[in-house]
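User: structure tokens for this one?
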Amino acid sequence: MRFYHTNISLRLRPLIRPRLSGWQTALILGIAILVGGCHSARIKFPRQGTDGPQFEVEFDDNTSKTRQHIIKECHSWLGTPYKHAGIDKDSGVDCSGLVMQVYLKVADIKLPRNSAKQSEFCKHIKKKNVRPGDLVFFATGNDPDKVTHVGIMIDEDKFIHSSSSKGVCIASVSSPWYSKRVLHYGRVPHMT
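Assistant:
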């Protein structure tokens, strides 16, 4: 293995000529693989229809395994049809049913059945403190102060929810429609 640097005249020359035995090289390579494998996990999300981008969510080292599993479970619900009061991947799910089922399966936390009660159940947090797996609450009805919709945050902008027109899909909090209707963000108790 040779290491080079560039000097002013752009000629390359070796800096160090390490002399490692076979087991030393294998040990260094093994450590490099382990350290490299410790960095953040990623989930690839598919393109949503013809206009949506494909994107990846990368978790930093501070994202708990439970939060990562919540996002992975949400990913498995993508494309599920919308059904009022539904809680099933096959027959359909509504927004609060999606949140309830994901948290029950992954974290064994039983959330209330509707979005308004889920909002009351959660600790309200500021947008700057939102982490993957936290909830976002909206007022989509006639009353601009009443929680009527919920989604699960994937990152600081995107969330997964069950849309009455698209089923389980990904949307952006900063989109013109949703940005006008965000009420607050919430953290489910016992989530780190």
